[in-house]
Amino acid sequence: MISHGTESDILCLKSIKNSLEDPNNYLTYSWNFSNNFEGYICRFNGVECWHPDENRVLNIKLSNMGLKGQFPRGFENCSTITGLDLSFNEFSGPIPADISSMLPFLTSIDLRNNKFTGEIPIALANCTYLNALKLDNNMLTDLCTIGKTDINNMVRRTP
Length: 159
Prior knowledge:
16% of the residues lie in helices and 23% in strands. The chain has helices at 7-19, 26-30, 99-102, 151-154; strands at residues 47-49, 57-61, 68-70, 83-85, 90-93, 108-110, 115-119, 132-134, 139-141, 145-146, 149-150.
């Protein structure tokens, strides 16, 4: 049993690491789970914690690491994450239809410049705190208008 930190956040990161191809070894060398001191996951590449001495993930920023794979289901175990940046990688497949329940506290999602396919999930309109959504340069269909919420207004285009 892990004595320090939040077990679900550690499980989240383990699951993410195990579900992705990491050809440049950014996660392979940095995400070492054999340490068990408080705040050790806060020292991982691309992981920001609420407090440096506490294993509770605030943001995950894995931009431009050459990562490959589908959107990791393991994110659902990072229950307090507010920011997610997977931009400029080679993620593929659909964005999960249940993303709003997987990551209910997200304020920003950056999935630009990947290979995501399919429809933009209607559930994004249910991300109550979301104020920045970047989906440019993927193979996604339709930016839908959902009730009073227009996903087009959430999408931030980069120059």
